[in-house]
Design brief:
By secondary structure, the chain is mainly alpha-helical. It contains ten helices and no strands. The chain has a domain at 94-215. Keywords: Membrane, Transmembrane, Transmembrane helix.
Length: 218
């Protein structure tokens, strides 16, 4: 009886070993998988670990923001006080601009008064010549006073047009917030010199008057 039992147990053991030998060996991780399958498996979440921890298998780890993204987020989240300070600083300069505007328009007004007051003298050239001779202490008369009238009209037109151009350019500069006080000053000097040159031409064409004027020079 015992021999039969022993014989049966040995037979079962041999049969089990035969089954184990016939059964293929268990493959190692990734042994039979292609490289593409391995890469796909690596990218997939660990389902077993998710089940153990109770988390969802489709949850993806939250990546930490890059350095640049963090800086951009902080810049957007920063309070807007610096912007207010910048706007206040940018709005500070109106006082100098206001002074510049006042000076600019004052010079334009002064130039307009000079232009208007010069018209009677320029349009009456004999009066202009007599006034100049009296100021220089010269006792001389023009040979042809009527010859100077066209030059006087031209000089008056130069002053009028020059003032209009200067005023327009000054207004354009003021509207753009630029420093403008120098424009009426330069315009007045330039156009006054041009008009004065035109008024001297008839005197240069009169030999007696010109010789008397040159004689007054040191």
């Amino acid at each position: 009886m015992s021999d039969d039992t022993t014989r049966a147990e040995s037979t079962d053991a041999e049969a089990a070993r035969a089954d184990d030998a016939a059964r293929p060996s268990r493959p190692q991780y990734g042994e039979y998988a292609t490289p593409e399958e391995q890469r796909a498996r690596i990218r997939q979440p660990d389902v077993t670990r998710a089940l153990d921890t109770g988390a969802s298998a489709t949850e993806q780890p939250v990546a930490a923001p890059a350095f640049g993204e963090a800086n951009a987020h902080l810049a957007h989240a920063a309070p807007s006080h610096p912007a207010r300070e910048t706007s206040v600083t940018a709005a500070a300069p109106p006082r100098p601009r206001m002074v510049d505007r006042i000076v600019t328009f004052a010079l334009l007004a002064y130039g307009l008064v000079n232009v208007v007051s010069s018209f009677p003298t320029f349009l009456d050239y004999s009066l202009y010549a007599d006034t100049m001779f009296a100021l220089l202490g010269v006792d001389v008369e023009l040979a042809d006073p009527a010859a100077g009238r066209p030059w006087g009209i031209a000089a008056a037109l130069v002053l009028a047009i020059g003032w209009l151009v200067t005023a327009a350019f000054s207004w354009w500069s003021v509207r753009r917030g630029r420093l403008s006080w120098w424009i009426p000053l330069v315009g007045g000097i330039v156009f006054t010199l041009v008009a004065g040159t035109l008024m001297v031409v008839p005197l240069m064409n009169d030999p007696a008057a010109w010789e008397a004027l040159v004689g007054t020079l040191p």
